[in-house]
Amino acid sequence: MPLLIEDQYLAGPLLVPVPRRDREPPLVVQILETKPAQDGFRYNFEVQGLDAGTYNLGDFLRDATAESGSSTHQIPVTITTELPPGLPRPADLAPKSVPAIGGYRTVLKVLGILWVIVLVIIIYSFRKKKVSASQEIPPPTVAERLKPLVQKASGDSLSTDDQAQLERLLVGHWRERLPELSEQEPAQVLRHLREHPEASPLILKLEKWLHTPNPEFSSDDLDQLLAPYRS
Fold first, then answer.
1. Domain total in the chain
2. Contact status, residue 29 vs residue 10, Cβ threshold 8 Å
3. pLDDT exceeds cutoff 90 at 177
4. Is residue 155, in this structure, part of any structural domain at all?
């Protein structure tokens, strides 16, 4: 009857049975289960004794990564019976693959993969929020675009390019507001705006500043002039 040795703790690397080169060794050792433990492993052994006597089970085990030799563990095993005369010795056991044992390196690899996944999710979410925020910013109103140009005009610092931009903004805005001006030339549009109740205050003020700048023009007055351009 085989001898069962259960929950045997052995420090050090993973062990496997030493392969039997012939049928002479007095013990046939099979590892039924291997469980990781601190600084070693716990084993369940099945030992078949072929000759009565006391043996060291460690002599029949070796490092799983080694190709020869045996372990240094001292595990006394006593076999009290032997095979009856005439019975053949058991055939060699077919080698079994050792189950993969997880460890510290495996844990580190898993944690590393999880960390990379979380990092990718964070970066993707941040970029998505950034794009969404940029898409939600409304374009500047006509009043916001006119304000710096009007301020320059009041202080006599309006350049030729600024004057052209100012004229384009005014003409374009009122062409959209007043369909009857859509086909007229800019000069005709400006003449019409001088008499328009909403457009005329700013148009007339700009013409006045061309001759008499007023750099101390108040912000309240400026906001009032730009009120028709905020809608």
1. 2
2. no
3. no
4. yes
